[in-house]
Amino acid sequence: MAACDGTVEWSAELHAILEQLEQPDKALSPCGSAVLSLLSRLFSLLRAPTAPVHAQAAQLASHLLRLADDKLNSFPYRDVPPCWRRLYTDASLLGALARLGGGDHASDDERRLAVHDCDMAIVVAGAPGPGREGHALELIRLAQAGLARSSQCEPPRAPQREDLARPAKRARLGSPAMRTCAPAPYIHRPLPVLPSLPSFLPSGPSEPFLVRAALATSDAVARWRSLSYLRRAAGPARVVPVEVGGDYTAEGWGQRMMGFGELLDALEGEERPGDGERGEGKVRETLYLAQHALFRQFPTLRRDLPLPDIVYSSPSTDGGSDGAEYVPPGGDDGVVMNAWLGPGGTKSKAHTDPWWNCYVQVVGSKWIWVAPPDCAPGMAAFGSSLSTGGQDDDPAGSSGFGGVDGADEDETDREEGGQAQHYMTNTSTLDVTPAAQLDAPSSSYYPPAFLSSVAPRAYQAVLEPGDVLVLPPRWWHSLVALERSFSVSMWF
């Protein structure tokens, strides 16, 4: 805290974090001597005992953070030199230390900025370095505690009895508790269903399978449908990355960072009757938290969802008939968890992933479509010869879920389209949801190769809360949320 003469007395928690960040480490050396000199200056300022000097430290940390951010934006993310991600992380944490060093005399704006920067260290840079992610979470906790004291708002707390109450029986699709906002597009060939979730993958060639209600009794299914619970689990001032617009292949799609509470407000607004518009002619934006490592930011939620044994089964092949050797993803324990949270109507276009996927539907319902890897020639992926034709200009007219825009492109669009075709060769240009087009052989919506070789072999299902889908690598899959939905994918 800050005394009347401006002297700053740090808490033991802040001192411990500063001590660990100041430990010698060669990871930042490639950033150059000028950066190392500025970091040394920053540590000296943080060791000074006065609030004005700490304000200088916060400014210097912001300068280093902008430098690191410029470097991160100068490369494709996978090619960013590790030293700049590390600098982004350390500058964020040191800036948060400077802002929180005043204790109860820190302003709420300083505390919110500290939370924001620590979240960004996790989301943008991945918080590389010994203990960095833990330091970020601890600084967030301290900043939120300060916000709670100053504004008398409710601090993050353990779930109460009403949060933990589970329904007497599993809510079924169409029941008042889980009313769907849209019907499933179609179920022509149901996904295979197993009676229970195995601990190990079957040997030999594999197909996707579904286990109904496998995790229906988990705390996640009981708690996450409550937006109030999600707010309390996150606490104030948290930020997350969201997709804005339709699916990521649609015109006008974008990404931005926004407050997690703001996202929950938007989801709540989507469900209020007559609240789908903001003013005359202005439609509410579609916001989707998609494929995000949310549980690194909110460990409380991670503890609500048990990981099925199957994700630790160490598959030796990719499940294909050729028995190809399988390389699992990186991540803690060889499992990469991502969250998918959004309103009804959000969609993932048909695409493939290189890993086994244990996909858990936690809240709401989703329609899923899957097809074997060898259907690729008929999927009209970006960059393929089929992706340039064979679709109506307005396929949305035959279904309620939209489609691919076939309008002419200008020079800029063609340039951007070339980038899309380079980076999205695992994504189909086709919208697999319009059932009417499948039943109309004369339609030009789908290429003949899709109608003859893909559609007859594709599976469909509606995933409900607690259902678990196990999907082998390289299988094509598309999903549509039929109502507000919270799902978790576990690549293993």
TrEMBL record:
Disordered: annotated segments: 150-172, 386-428
Question: By its UniProt entry, which InterPro entries does this protein fall under?
Answer: Cupin_8, JmjC_dom
Q: Name one Pfam family in it.
A: Cupin_8
Top-level taxonomic group = Eukaryota
* Record domain JmjC: where: 303-492
Q: Which SUPFAM superfamilies match?
A: Clavaminate synthase-like
What protein am I looking at? JmjC domain-containing protein
